[in-house]
Amino acid sequence: METLEEAEFCFPQLFNTSCKRHTRPQSESMLIYILMSFISLFTVVLNLLVIISISHFRQLHTPTNFVLLSLAVSDFLVGLFVIPSQILLTEPCWFLGDLLCVLYYCLNFIIVYASVINMVLISVDRYVAICDPLHYSTKITQMRVRICVLLCWTYSFIYSFMFIFDSLKQPGRYNSCYGECVINISGAADIVLGFILPISTIVVLYLRVFVVAVSQARAMRSHITAVKMQSSVTVTVKKSELKAARTLGVVVAVFLMCYCPYYCVSLSSSDLIIGSSSEAFMSFLVYSNSCLNPLIYAFFYRWFRISVKLIVTLEILQPQSCDTNMFLLYF
Q: Which terms in the GO cellular component ontology are assigned (predicted)?
């Protein structure tokens, strides 16, 4: 009986001050471990392929792809650091100390916020490409995109440290027992600045993109003669831009489906208990988004499938492989 009681505590030697473990069926625990481990490995490998593809092949060095590269980096870090750390919290006993607990949350916030801001940048990029195609090349340049990506990560760092600064000064001050990993953040500010504001921006921009894309698609299918168009020249968006808008629209839609449930629970003032089955499911949903993005690229972007083939077959190790014409390989 004593062994069973000790097994209920994170630190049996600190019987009076130790946190209790959540009792969960072994089959459920194994399922969580297997799913999280699989997603972690899959996320790292797939996003690493995206990073190598866009970084290596010069023809893929476009403003849109630089934003996708930034998104792939944040997704890669989710698979490499955040998901493995989340597995440690399924007990939920934190054995790595109070300082690493705060740093874990800080890294988590940085990566998640960077993903959100990258989605905003994607929406802005598609908005300009579809709604103002004549000025796209002058407004969305590689230098401006690189600056925006840098500002995205800088904002994520500052934003995250702003929320964990109080906990960083005295790690563990909000823990009620040993083995707990808790920090204090302003929930309202987090929801407004980290979710409502950027998500509203994404939705509004993509609704505008959707309306314009539909009208342009109808215009391309119509049988308007060149004579009728002489009086008022209409600029139609290229098919490639419409396809990119559709593809990135799927990325944004999947992102919203993965992230919205977690924040909807926060908005409903319902608390998620760390280590509970509901918290594990919400985390699984959020982190699975990092794994789904490369799969969307593989499904919609032929250049990604071709680049993966070149990487897997080690053809990228050949001299001048970075100058490969990816688009000629389409045919």
A: plasma membrane
Residue 269 belongs to domain with CATH number = 1.20.1070.10
Rounded Cα–Cα distance for residues 20 and 276 (Å)? 13
Q: Which domain holds residue 265?
A: 26-220+237-323
Contact 72, 331 (CB under 8 A): no
Mean pLDDT of all residues belonging to the chain: 76
- CA 8, distance to chain mean position in Å, is 35
Contact 40/84 with Cβ under 8 angstroms?
yes
The Cβ-side half-sphere exposure at 112, using a 13 Å CA radius, reads 25
Q: Model pTM?
A: 0.80
- Number of residues that make up the chain: 331
Tokens for 273?
Answer: 């208990």
Q: Are 178 and 19 in contact (CB under 8 A)?
A: yes
- Amino acid in the structure at residue 175: N
The average pLDDT across 43-58 equals: 91
